[in-house]
Design goal:
Keywords: Membrane, Transmembrane, Transmembrane helix. One of its GO terms (cellular component) is plasma membrane. It is a multi-pass membrane protein. Helix content is 79%, strand content 0%. The protein has 2 domains: 20-201, MFS general substrate transporter like domains (Growth Hormone, Chain: A), CATH 1.20.1250; 220-393, Up-down Bundle (Growth Hormone, Chain: A), CATH 1.20.1250. By secondary structure, it is an all-alpha fold. It is built from 16 helices and no strands.
Length: 411
């Protein structure tokens, strides 16, 4: 009779200890995610005051924010070209520094020109930081040998929450938006100065005359294009939920304003919780299977309020949507950064190009569909998009990390 417990004990190898340098790198990259989140949260909390100081209405405010999209688009192109040439650490530090310097200046805007200029710089700086820091997070994950990307994005979510709380507290004591953003920028800048040496770099390829254009074109492999499509769908679904959850609760389910706000809060908290614990589930199930299950949860989350538009069902549904979608994009970015023959920065830059229009188009497309049909019918399209993620993720080829369950074979 065989002692199976003994055999199991002898075949299982303990996970190697994580090097101290990898732990430091993880904390330093996590700080970049927190900087991004805190800046967005702190700014969002004080938007009404800044808008009143500038003296524009809703239409003017919406038009001014086009500058953010323009800055992001320019930065996408710039980063795509530079990511294989320039030290990724320098790109990330430049983006973070630009955000910290621009934030109090943007919050101090009193004219339309200053507002538009600040928003354009914000959009440029945000992507100048986003692509390198996501590539760096992939490098840290390689050092750990197990899924850890979702915890970085949890840092972004926690930063947004902390920024919102800072804005609320600053408003309560009468501190101006610019002073609030200046204080947070100084504190975060001090932390960045103390940890910037720990930031990892990503591999770069040597360039030759005439080779850059070929390499840029060659990044668009079938696998990266597939991952870019998945990132587009995930970004669209996530932003549709974030931007329309409260309106769905009021217009479709007839919920009161408090319940509508609670619906958005439920989605945000569920997403944060998922990002805190998602890496463990990804390691246990395998990342491909984990994304498939996550997208299925998101599909159920969208279908529930569509099928049963009751306030309780709407709140539960959007909570499931937030929980299911929260870890999809981080995991997809991880796959992009592991593509053979490309650096992590090059792979992430391609997927970032697919992710950006998804977030940009979510609000207007859902609005147009709601106007042509109704909001409930518009979210049927969102459910179909979530099912598309379930189908497409099975076509992704990925190698399991040492601390991850093996990737299931493709049928």
């Amino acid at each position: 009779m065989t002692d199976t417990s003994t055999n199991q004990h002898t075949t299982e190898q303990p996970a190697p200890p994580v090097p101290r340098s990898a732990v430091r790198a993880r904390w330093s990259v996590a700080l970049l995610f927190v900087i991004m989140g805190l800046a967005i949260g702190g700014w969002s909390a004080r938007v009404p005051e800044v808008r009143d100081a500038v003296g524009v209405g809703n239409t003017g405010w919406g038009l001014a924010n086009i500058a953010t999209n323009a800055g992001e688009l320019i930065s996408l192109v710039v980063v795509a070209v530079l990511i294989s040439r320039i030290n990724t650490r320098r790109l990330a530090l430049a983006g973070a520094a630009l955000i910290l310097v621009n934030a109090p200046l943007l919050a101090a805007s009193t004219t339309v020109v200053a507002l538009v200029g600040g928003l354009a710089v914000w959009g440029f700086a945000a992507n100048l930081l986003a692509t390198p820091m996501n590539a760096q997070s992939v490098e840290v994950q390689k050092r750990y040998g197990r899924p850890i990307l979702s915890t970085f994005h949890a840092g972004f979510s926690i930063g947004m929450l902390a920024g919102g709380l800072c804005g609320t507290g600053a408003a309560a004591i009468g501190m101006s938006p610019s002073a609030q953003m200046a204080v947070t920028s100084v504190l975060l800048g001090a932390l960045l100065v103390g940890t910037h040496r720990w930031l990892p770099d990503t591999p770069r390829q040597e360039t030759k005359d005439g080779e850059d254009r070929r390499r840029l074109r060659d990044r668009f492999t079938p696998q990266l294009l597939l991952l870019a499509v998945i990132a587009f769908l995930a970004s669209f679904i996530e932003m549709a939920g974030a931007q329309w959850s409260a309106l769905y609760a009021t217009e479709v389910a007839g919920a009161a304003a408090v319940l509508a706000a609670a619906t958005y809060t439920c989605l945000s908290l569920a997403a944060t919780v998922a990002r805190l614990f998602g890496d463990r589930l990804a390691g246990r199930f395998g990342r491909i299977r984990f994304v498939r299950l996550s997208a299925l949860v998101a599909t159920v989350g969208v279908a529930l309020p569509v099928a049963y538009p009751h306030p309780a069902a709407v709140m539960a549904g959007f909570g499931l949507l937030g929980f299911g979608l929260a870890c999809v994009t981080p995991t997809v970015l991880g796959f992009a950064g592991e593509q053979p023959g490309l650096t992590s920065g090059e792979g992430v830059s391609v997927v970032a190009m697919g992710q950006w229009p998804g977030a940009l188009l979510a609000a207007p497309v859902i609005g147009l569909l709601a106007g042509a049909l109704d909001l409930r019918s518009a979210f049927v399209v969102v459910a179909v998009m979530a099912l598309a993620v379930v189908a497409l993720i099975g076509r992704v080829r990925a190698t399991a990390l040492p601390g991850e369950s093996p990737v299931p074979p493709r049928p």
